[in-house]
Description:
The complex is a heterodimer of chains A (241) and B (321). Chain A has ten helices and no strands. By secondary structure, chain A is mostly helical. Chain B is α/β, with parallel strands linked by helices and 321 residues long. Chain B has helices at 41-48, 70-76, 92-103, 108-118, 134-146, 164-179, 191-197, 215-219, 263-276, 291-299, 310-320; strands at 4-13, 16-26, 30-34, 56-61, 64-65, 77-80, 152-156, 183-188, 200-205, 208-213, 225-231, 246-252, 255-260, 281-287. In chain B, β12 and β13 form a beta hairpin. In chain B, α3 packs across α4 (108-118) and α4 (108-118) crosses α5. Chain B is elongated and about 75 Å long. Chain B starts with a strand and ends with a helix. In chain B, 44% of the residues are buried. The A-B interface holds A 2-3, 5-7, 9-10, 13-14, 17-18, 76, 78-89, 156, 239-241 and B 46, 49-53, 70-72, 74-75, 77-85, 87, 89-90, 94, 98-99, 101-104, 128, 144, 314, 317-318, 321.
Amino acid sequence: MSAIVPYIRRDFLRWGRGRVAVVSTLVMPAAWLVFVGLALPIRFTDNYLDFITPGILVMTMLSAGLAGGTLLMFDKILGFMNKFLALPAPRENILFGKILFASGRGILQATIILAIAILIGASVYSPLQYAVTYLILFLFGILVAAFATTVALYLDDHDSLSAFNTMITMPLFFTSSALMPYDVMPPWLRPIASVNPLSFAIDAVRAVDAGMMPSVQLAALGLLSAGVIGICIHVFRRTTV
Amino acid sequence: MIAIETHNLTRYYGALRAVDHLDLTIENEIFGLLGPNGSGKTTTVLMLTTLLRPSEGTASICGYDVLTKGTEVRKHISYVPQDMAVDIKLTGRENVLFYADLYGVDNPKDRTDEALGIMELSDRADDLTKTYSGGMRRRLELAQALVHEPDVVFLDEPTLGLDVAARKKIWEHIRSLKKTGMTVFVTTHYMDEADRYCDRVGIISSGRITALGSPPALKARLMKDVVTISVEGECSSLQEPVIEGTEYLGCTGSDLSFTAENGREALPLLADALGRSGIRIRQMSLREPTLDDVFLQVVGQQEETPGFNEQKFRIMLRRRR
Lengths: 241, 321
């Protein structure tokens, strides 16, 4: 465990010193909150901001998780990876460090987005509800980051990775339950949305907001994360000696 | 104590034999692996540092097999690849401390200070690496490599892209490392640097070691003087000239090289002989042999690998990562 911390600390130091990057990742989810959450004329609820906030939080975690893959790709391209692989510490720590950093950074970003949402009129919930919400977001972050690092291990260059990220982000978001509940969706969208991992996380956060404990979704997210981490380790061992 | 030992070490990339049955025994010394680009130097280093699996053969570092005792091997080595990978948004101290923590050394802060001191970076230690020159970044990488006091240090092209002063400094540091008991395995294609600083060198070409020994011993294979003759046009089209009292070494571009026991006497003989075959001479020079001449003799013309194969190249890149 102790050998993972240096990797995480390194990434946080580097991130904290790139001032533009710290702000720019927040612009997109904040824009969604304000321009869609406040502006869209919606009939199925009288507080659309409360409805869309879980979706935007999960979207923030999605892009934060995918960014973990990009970071790993740069380590690969710039030669850091080879230096790390020649260290005696367990090699998998490189992956765990990256996945934990990406999820941890996502949690920080989600906190800021949540604060903005409350500032512009979203409801405030109890500490216990927030604690479960954070657990869901963190698990989802782990899932996405593990998936993104696996893809980054497979691909050879940064261009293909960023094309891949662009390709999946929007379709994943729009086919989830982020923007509308299942009963107002067109019938063809419902089955897609109900198997979309984004919906698991979003529905779970909404259930928490409604005062329920989303055990099924938590278990599903936990199992999925464990599975993807397993695949990630396998791919890692195969591509590095 | 044998630092590095390889036996029949071989690596294929598809059909390309990048390293071809290498047998090396390296003890406490500065060993230079010399060769042109694409001759198998980096592949050799990757196999010795457990980053690449050998196709055939074995290798061991400090007695630990690279295939079965990978973690032990990595505890005893440091590897500095040629990419110059330091975090530019971190300070020099943070860059080194990062490795001290990863190696799990006792007193990481003290070891970091010490390593930075050895590499003469103490006064700039708290500046962002972004502001460092190429030579300083290289020294920072050496400091990272020193922090856990390894037994064997692998340096892949440590002076690539540095100016003359920075190169000299890097090599002086490499020498001082050896004095503290470390074995240094360095790859380079700068023959003059290897000549001056390496205890022993191996010349590698197409994955095979074609000459092995100390630079003076290798140069002693040649006769006392080397004569280089610039001729008009390319010399590769000429047939090998046979001139008594001299030995033909090879040609690069429009320069023909010969070695002779007495260069001063050989000069007119060579000029006459070449003139008779209708070759127009532009310039002649006489000097002592260098490793470049040894290289020319054992490898032949130094040219870029012809017939670039996109498929092979892509496979190679993928495996390297």
